[in-house]
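Hi all, posting the design record for the shared folder.

TITLE: backbone redesign
STEP: 1 of 1
STRUCTURE INPUT:
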């Protein structure tokens, strides 16, 4: 990082600009799996890591014969270890259970011969030097054995469960169904048994499912059969909720409470109720969300709400991906992130997956296989050797910040695999968000998701200045300014600002000032960044106001002391909301006098305008956002010209509250009344009243929320019911966000919801795949248009549609609009067959007619109607024709022919038209015909093979190539047997045209052909390497292809780059040399020639001997100079 010129000489040595590194990586920013090697064990009989735990940035690993202590901070280093000698292992047995005290000072181990070992962890004073001038803050640790004693029940031949503990006592379960308490000082408190307590009088609630004998017990289940005849296999302790969960070998799960006395005495622990479905094998509690995750023998995970009598919330599994318990085995481990926003699940036989609390699949080591009828395990998988945890997962543990997931493979003793995760800048806690930019942040970097109008989504990979993050790791807070052009990032201390346009960082010039700031939250107030700072010396909190042009104490605009630690914060225009526990709301108004420039001295004043103290028994707010009053856009113009304007903005009178349990409500700030709206919400975005420089396509929306139901949109409506909720992504299963796409935010100017999903990429040189976050976009324009049409706002709908015509998703969105409206019409007719009143007909048909009238204003109208007709039953075409107009009927010629003459005739006509469009190079039309042929063939086939039942999406997986690596058609031995004649015909026509273009070296047309029809070029090149794709002579090939491509044109260069990437993927050397020469890609040629000297000599002689190739002599000289240094050393 090189410092550059300061912005102002008067600010020299105070606040500095540092040029940032911003890499434009379309669609992905891959991160691999980090391997942490472990000490080899001394021939243990059990090949299993028994314990993994993170406390205070330390990672404890316990194996059968030794334990290791690692740093879990920025630098992963082993700080200490204790290896038991062989004599001790033979005499006392291997380590089978372990627990680490909450203060990280003591470690307890239990051996197979039931010896209790207690170790003490002590750190030395010597700092470890990692690199650079600054010490790492890490110290070596000494691990000393302080107690070794056999437990009193050792002679009873009992097995033990895991161990849980508080600061004073440990608790473990025994195979006779009892619990045993041990003091950390080594005192054995004895065993005791559990019994359900029926004192509440509601005995039926104690057991609400059948026992193993199939009889449903409504009695109090004093049934000591559960407790005495079943071994305890796991204990799960939640200190904050004072709950203990006891899991038995028969799958029964008991919830217990304990009092202030802790785990010492039997009378302090009371069994209260039985939970689950009776198939539990693992449990994990999320204390913040008060949710219990129960892993089952079926491989599924059940989530229970501990605040609502432990009611079942939802169940997640891999069944929708085609995997059953025979493929994955039962659940072996579950681990929640520190903030309880997600949980990781490992299975006994194969794989691990991470889900969000609402059920969105965020990451999985197991690949999605689609709707195949074959068994996932039995099915051969070329990439299975690259799949992590192919043999199962034994232990999972998150780091303290949720950036790393440590995982142990089943039967592994040699290593820990660490997965890197990023967090989304969401509207939770005390950091603000913006709709202009979506940001994912990792422990030391940012991923910026952005869309430039009609461009596709892409991810910008941004690394933080080493000088800052090395001393303030990890990143803890990130927020973007309202326009998305500035980012504020805070680590352990201080903060830094990033200018997206200039690609530069601003940091504190005075390191002492930076270290005095412990940021607890960030907000943007126009051009001012607001820092919620914790003062360690006084244990108080304050708000600091810095101008974005200068980070220094001398430019501090204001300092506002706070009453306590803020629970949530928000800002809207000149108003700041601060909420304290239990539920005290304070609203401040900010007034800025003077210009906010380096040359002036502005004065910022805060005044309290509202204070509310609300008494409620509900869970604490996780997020609160102002709801601006929605007024016409023209009435707000001109009001934001100056931050010091007295008439800047009307004070908001309502705010939206998201509570920790997922309840979403509206709070009236005038009278303190709260109105509940919905539940099971994970995220929400307030969209109304947000001024944008660009056109805001979602101006009429109040807010959107996301939860296990999917996305929901809320509109303002007149009358008593101020808001109306509409599930706009659940109208059709194919139209909703996939369960693998997690929403990040909105792009109001594009009218889309931006999400991110996981993508796997494989490399032959790495053991594991890379997990790449891939941005996805889901348009909501069709919902907004339907909303306007339903309210007879036809002109507004037309203007909104016209504003969106340049958006890449416009045609698809219009198709969704017509499809959803038409589907609603069909459903309404089916539900009301006996009630065909005139009013119903007018209402429903009117909406369909209004939709068609709207679509007629755009040239895509006919294509949209045809596409919708292909998705619907022919019995309902008459209704669609009636609303769309008779002029659309000719678009259905192939559909009509198929009905009258049969699918064979229809497909024959379509195939002839496909050939004609290819002959005329109309590749976009050809692509549409290909999709029509594939869909129509599938719809009218009556064969009984399993392939006939495959979904269009899955069948397209094998037919059309893309940026993903697809299996070859010819390499699948059963494909030709299962595929029908029309698929073979389409394939033959496309391949024949590809042969024609390749033989004539019509490469620009070839690129357009591949992109338009999604033809699998990689598979074609592999097959035709020695056929039509072969280059007979390098010199003639270079000359001919240079003439065909006309490299002076930008589009031709892009086409050449496209071809080069495909040639590299199949290692087609002849084409790689020619295309790389034309593109002057010296790095590609250098990498090729340094491994093939003969090819380099032939290449050099050819270019030197042909006069027409003199333009490449500079490239040749550069390669010769680089290769001489490499080849000369060999």
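Okay, here is what came back for every position:
SEQUENCE:
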């Amino acid at each position: 990082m090189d410092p550059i010129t300061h912005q102002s000489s008067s600010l020299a040595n105070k606040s500095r600009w540092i040029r940032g590194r911003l890499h434009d990586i379309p669609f992905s920013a891959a991160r691999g799996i980090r391997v942490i090697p472990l000490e080899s064990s001394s021939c243990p009989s059990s090949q299993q890591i028994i314990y993994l735990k993170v406390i205070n940035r330390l990672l404890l690993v316990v194996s059968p014969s030794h334990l290791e202590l690692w740093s879990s901070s920025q630098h992963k280093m082993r700080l200490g270890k204790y290896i038991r000698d062989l004599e001790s292992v033979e005499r006392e047995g291997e380590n089978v259970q372990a627990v680490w005290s909450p203060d990280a000072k003591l470690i307890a181990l239990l051996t197979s011969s039931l010896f209790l070992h207690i170790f003490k962890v002590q750190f030395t004073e010597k700092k470890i030097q990692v690199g650079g001038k600054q010490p790492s803050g890490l110290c070596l640790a000494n691990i000393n054995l302080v107690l070794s004693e056999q437990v009193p029940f050792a002679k009873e031949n009992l097995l033990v469960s895991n161990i849980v503990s508080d600061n004073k006592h440990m608790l473990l379960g025994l195979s006779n169904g009892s619990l045993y308490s041990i003091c950390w000082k080594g005192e054995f408190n004895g065993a005791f048994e559990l019994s359900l307590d029926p004192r509440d009088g509601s005995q039926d609630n104690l057991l609400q499912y059948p026992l193993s004998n199939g009889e449903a017990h409504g009695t109090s289940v004093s049934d000591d059969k559960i407790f005495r005849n079943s071994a305890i296999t796991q204990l799960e302790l939640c200190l904050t909720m004072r709950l203990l969960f006891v899991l038995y070998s028969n799958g029964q799960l008991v919830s217990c409470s304990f009092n202030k006395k802790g785990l010492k005495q039997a009378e302090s622990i009371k069994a209260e109720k039985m939970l689950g479905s009776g198939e539990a094998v693992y449990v994990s509690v999320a204390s913040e969300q008060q949710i219990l995750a129960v892993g089952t023998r079926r491989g599924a995970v059940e989530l229970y709400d501990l605040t609502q009598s432990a009611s079942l919330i939802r169940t997640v599994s891999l069944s929708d991906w085609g995997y059953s318990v025979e493929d994955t085995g039962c659940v072996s481990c579950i681990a929640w992130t520190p903030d309880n926003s997600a949980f990781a699940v490992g299975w006994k036989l194969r794989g691990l997956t991470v889900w969000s609390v609402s059920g969105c699949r965020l990451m999985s080591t197991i690949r999605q296989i689609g709707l195949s009828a074959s068994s996932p395990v039995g099915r051969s998988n070329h990439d299975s050797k690259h799949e992590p945890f192919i043999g199962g997962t034994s232990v999972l543990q998150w780091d303290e910040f949720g950036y790393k997931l440590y995982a142990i493979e089943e039967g592994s003793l040699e290593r820990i695999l660490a997965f890197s995760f990023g967090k989304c800048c969401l509207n939770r806690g005390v950091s603000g968000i913006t709709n202009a930019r979506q940001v994912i942040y990792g422990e030391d970097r940012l991923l910026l998701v952005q869309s430039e109008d009609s461009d596709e989504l892409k991810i910008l990979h941004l690394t933080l200045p080493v000088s800052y993050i090395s001393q303030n790791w990890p990143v803890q807070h990130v927020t973007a300014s309202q326009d998305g052009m500035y980012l504020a990032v805070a680590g352990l201390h201080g903060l830094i600002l990033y200018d997206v346009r200039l690609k530069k960082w601003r940091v504190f010039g005075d390191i002492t000032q930076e270290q005095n700031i412990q940021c607890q939250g960030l907000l943007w107030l126009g051009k001012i960044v607001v820092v919620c700072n914790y003062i360690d010396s006084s244990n108080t909190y304050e708000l600091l106001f810095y101008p974005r042009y200068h980070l220094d104490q001398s430019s501090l605009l204001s300092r506002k002391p706070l009453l306590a630690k803020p629970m949530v914060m928000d800002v809207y225009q000149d108003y700041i909301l601060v909420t304290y526990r239990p539920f005290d709301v304070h609203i401040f108004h900010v007034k800025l006098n003077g210009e906010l420039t380096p040359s002036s001295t502005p004065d910022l004043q805060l005044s309290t305008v509202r204070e509310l103290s609300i008494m409620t028994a509900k869970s604490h707010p996780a997020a609160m956002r102002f709801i601006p009053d929605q007024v016409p856009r023209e009435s707000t113009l001109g009001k934001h010209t100056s931050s010091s304007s007295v008439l800047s903005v009307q004070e908001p009178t309502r705010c939206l509250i998201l509570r920790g349990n997922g309840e979403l409500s509206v709070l009236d700030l005038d009278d303190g009344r709260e109105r509940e709206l919905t539940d099971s919400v994970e995220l929400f975005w307030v969209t109304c009243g947000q001024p944008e420089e660009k056109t805001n396509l979602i101006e009429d929306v109040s807010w959107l929320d996301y939860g296990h139901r999917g996305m929901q949109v809320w509109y303002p409506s007149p009358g008593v019911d101020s808001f109306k909720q509409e599930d706009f992504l659940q109208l059709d299963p194919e139209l909703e966000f996939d369960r693998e796409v997690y929403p990040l935010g909105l792009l109001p100017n594009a009218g889309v919801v931006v999400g991110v999903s996981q993508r796997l990429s494989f490399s032959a040189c790495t053991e594991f795949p890379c997990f790449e976050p891939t941005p996805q976009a889901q348009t909501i324009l069709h919902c907004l248009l339907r909303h306007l049409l339903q309210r007879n706002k036809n002109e507004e709908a037309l203007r909104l549609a016209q504003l969106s015509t340049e958006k890449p998703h416009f045609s698809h969105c219009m198709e969704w609009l017509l499809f959803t409206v038409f589907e609603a019409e069909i459903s309404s007719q089916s539900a009301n067959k006996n009630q065909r009143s005139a009013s119903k007909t007018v209402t429903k048909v009117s909406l369909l007619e209004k939709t068609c009238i709207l679509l007629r204003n755009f040239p895509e109208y006919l294509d949209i109607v045809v596409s919708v007709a292909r998705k619907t039953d022919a019995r309902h075409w008459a209704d669609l024709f009636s609303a769309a107009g008779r002029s659309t009927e000719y678009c259905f010629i192939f559909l009509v022919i198929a009905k009258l003459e049969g699918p064979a005739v229809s497909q024959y006509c379509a195939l002839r038209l496909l050939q004609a469009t290819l002959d005329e190079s109309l590749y976009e039309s050809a692509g549409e015909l290909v999709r029509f042929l594939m869909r129509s063939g599938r719809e009218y086939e009556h064969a009984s093979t399993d392939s006939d039942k495959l979904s269009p999406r899955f069948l397209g997986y094998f037919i059309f190539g893309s940026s993903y690596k697809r299996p070859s058609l010819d390499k699948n031995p059963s494909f030709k047997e299962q595929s029908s004649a029309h698929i073979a015909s389409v394939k033959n026509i496309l391949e024949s045209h590809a042969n024609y273009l390749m033989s004539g070296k019509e490469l620009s047309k070839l690129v357009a052909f591949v992109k338009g029809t999604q033809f699998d070029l990689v598979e074609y090149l592999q097959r035709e390497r020695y056929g039509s794709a072969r280059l007979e002579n390098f010199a003639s090939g270079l000359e001919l292809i240079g003439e065909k491509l006309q490299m002076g044109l930008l589009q031709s260069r892009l086409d050449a780059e496209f071809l080069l990437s495909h040639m590299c993927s199949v290692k087609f050397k002849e084409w790689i040399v020619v295309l790389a020469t034309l593109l002057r890609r010296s790095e590609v040629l250098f990498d090729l020639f340094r491994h093939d000297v003969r090819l380099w000599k032939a290449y050099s002689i050819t270019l030197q001997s042909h006069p027409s190739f003199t333009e490449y002599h500079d490239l040749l000289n550069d390669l010769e100079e680089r290769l001489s240094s490499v080849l000369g050393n060999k």
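COMMENT: The mean pLDDT is 79.
Let me know if anyone wants the other runs.
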